[in-house]
Amino acid sequence: MICKRFSVSALFLPSVSLLAVLAVCVSSVQAAERTALSLNGIWQIESQIKRIDGSSISTTEIDQTVKRLMKSAEVTGAAIAVLNDGKVVYTRAYGFRDKEKNLPLTTDSVMSGASLTKAAFAFLVLELVDDGKLDLDKPIQQYLAKPLPEYSRYADLAADDRYKKITARMLLSHSAGFPNWRAFEDDRKLHIHFDPGLRYAYSGEGIDLLQLVVEVITNQSVGELMQDRIFTPLGMTRTSMTWQSRFESDFANGYDEYGRLLGPQKRQNPDAAGSLLTTVSDYARLVAAISNGKLFSAKSRAQLLSPQIRIHSKHQFPSLANELSADNDLINLSYGLGWGLYTSPYGTAFFKEGHDDGWRNYVVCFEKPKSGIVILTNSGNGEGIFKYLLETILKDTFTPIEWEGYTPYDKLPPRPALTKHARVSIDGKLLDRYAGRYGQLPDLILTIRRAGDHLTIQENDEPPQDLLPESEANFYSTSSDDTLTFESKDGHVTRLVLHLGDRDLPINRLD
Fold it and tell me: Which CATH architecture has domain 428-508?
């Protein structure tokens, strides 16, 4: 906790004045206990945060731990909120929101929530259930005006009638049979890989399908619904499903594992699977609301936090891997509705991850003490400190770290050296020929633009990245190890080929 420090002369003030002076020290930290300490005649307030096992940790120790871990793991910025008894008692930001401009991260810095969006969206869905607008167990096809494959995004399912079995409960519990994203499929088409409801397989595709259903039955965009029904009622004033001009005053850039700038996420289209822009303070309000049962019924809250499907996979990703494990049977690892679940001596814990290029987030909250933590980072290295943060700040030794894929930073192999590229100059007319849209409608759009003597590439609403030429047809990214090659036929550029490690991904030109 940071507060003003006062000299020993403050002791000679009248008692009321002294109390008023000490009150100035109480910042956004609202801990269970506070102790006034005198260090060399300097008075300050030392706050104590309760952990799930009943022990306490001082805010000073939290600060020292976070700073030490961030430095060792090369994490650009981290924002943390802690909950005790269902209340947010500690919020603090560390590091930088903009390393190049030396701008510090703040608790009001807008960051990418990534897949934390899915858990917030589940809150909305259960409100609609309370309103009688949606039945979790009614096949979602019955809410649509036409067969699902007649919607262009789902034409791939025309030959598979199993889509008729899919319910909202399956979509929220990631058991509908979809891959995480169709872009990872060999043919880049959407497939149902197992009978709906049979097993757990994390899927952004499933959440996006439920977004379609919600927007059909309400005749509103999910962005409007989330704003009106979740963000505004909870006082989440710096949260939105799309970029807002009011965020310009304080937002964070993302950075990759090498510390390379990726920029902010300025999403223009609401996506229930990942477009949330939020702050650590705001998302902590949402977690507190779930912990305390605000905005939705006790019945819906019970369903949210009740196991819908047991998880027996060795790891969460790849989501369709068949490797099974009993490692997490003792904690009854499961999925509820939009949130992961496991049991502990401190009651059921609900958790959610957020993972995107340059963004690593994690949230967990324990039912009995209503204690939890929100961790948002703008660094590809963020996950490397999660285990130690959870153990130190919360005394949480139960989160399934291996299943999550959260290898501690000091257990990771050395990062490979960056590939060296030699930039060359090419004719500007050739750059103009490459400019255009490439992809597979409606899900993957890569926009190539000329930017002076080089190109930029933008995937959907993601931040654009610079592409520099190393030959007339070959380009490399300044913020990743990806390279690409433009291919031409009869003088016309027909496609580009992304070189992703040992995999080549051809993408046709659209215009």
Answer: Beta Barrel (2.40)
